[in-house]
Amino acid sequence: MAYQVFALKWRPENFDDVVGQEHVTATLKNAISKGRIAHAYLFAGPRGVGKTSTARILAKALNCKEGPTVQPCQKCSSCLEISQARSLDVIEIDGASNRGIDEIRILRENVKFSPVNGKYKIYIIDEVHMLTTEAFNALLKTLEEPPEFVKFIFATTQAHKVLSTVLSRCQRFDFKRVPVVKVIEQLNKIVAKEKIRLDNDVLFAVARASDGSLRDAESILDQLISFTKDKISLSDVISVLGVVRHEVLFDITDKIIQKDGKGALELLNSIIDEGKDTAMFLMDLIEHFRNLMVLKVSQADFTLVDLPQDICERLERQSSAFTLDEIFSAFNVLVNTQEMARRLDSLRIPLEIGLIKLTQNKARAEGESYVKPVENKPAGIEKKPVVREAKVEKQPEPPARAREIVPEDPAPEAPAPEEPDSGAVQSSSLQEIKDKWQKIIDNLTKVKISAATYLNEGCPSKLDKNTLTISFPKNYSLHKEALEMKDNKAILEKTISQVMNATIRLNLILTKEEARREEIQATPFIKSALDAFNARPLNGN
User: Fold this and answer.
1) Would you say 304 and 298 are in contact if contact means Cβ atoms under 8 Å apart?
2) Average pLDDT in the 332-357 region?
């Protein structure tokens, strides 16, 4: 007998074999038991989760010799023919290659003829969203009032592309991604039956790589068996798929907790040297921090994290080393890393910058405020963010860069009005704005991260009536232009007005001066990066 791949060999044959779609199979079984069988069904969901397999099982349940039944016998000629995709009464159509009105006209003519052997003539149309609008419209009348012996089952991965007039004529079932735990359970059954030798952590790596698609997981396992000679190891999975070991995510998070910038960069370098997908690594790291957040907020409710028990326990222990503010700040850094990568068309440099930011006590761009690891903190006490205290350290004068700023085109001073606007902040409040500048940036971070990042490079330099002038160094024109966009400026003005409890309008300008090298090198982030690389600042010569 010819070799059969796992995805076909282990295809479910009855409703109980369908993995992770109990909400669908239970409804279909009840409908069959009660004789409430609809004339048209729509199965929607991601790839490889059992839509077409469930359609075949439903066809067998209706046309089985013992049927309609919730347990097809798998022995009669009808069941066998449907399983082997050669039944004359179950017509499977590929919507991608039969999408025109001519094909639908042929279908409309054929539905008039009675089934050959079974009780029903069943049309299974896969990827039905590929049909043209004209084809859908030609099908509507037949779909709404088909002959009593005709049933339609549609399958699609993009239900939003199906016409609403078609959706309204179908019973819709939404298939879900198969949870990692259930994928592992099914792979364990296959491994036991096929007598495959593998390491314990192989199935978890395969399940994660499948992204909720059981068919993908079975295909990956099949590929690994062909790749290896004897026993499948985790290194084989990494070699074949190019995935990053889950252990690395824990290791790099530990480096962040320990504020070990050099160690984090070494781990990243090893990932790149092994040829791993850095974009996938970044997405995995974002998901890792999401899991830390969920377990911290839910007080270790493992049902909210689609991972095995032992992994969840490690995540719960690691989450205790962070406050929620720190986790949110980490999200800010990682998302900004993605934005920077799109601008640079490269991911390595943004990733290195992001990891260094995450490992520092003070972070500049997004208001991060990492504290020492949990073992150095009193239990139940969270430190306040360091950044805010550093910005408001009883310094009445503005930062050095702001003092030396000379506007290129300073706004003309208007004569003082006789009666100031009731909602405006007066010029005497400029220092108050400077004192609350970090609070403004923090509040803006919660609304729009990128805008907060740009604003952090500017300094409030002048307040004329209710118009605040924010100055940017000449080499930061991109930040100024981004904030002058209509949406960004509206958000910024609203945030500042809320913090200052007054109506504020903005005027953004560039200065004649560029940000000086000494000032840049004096920032905590750059200083820590120099320390991590054991480097020294340039002397300006």
Assistant:
1) yes
2) 87
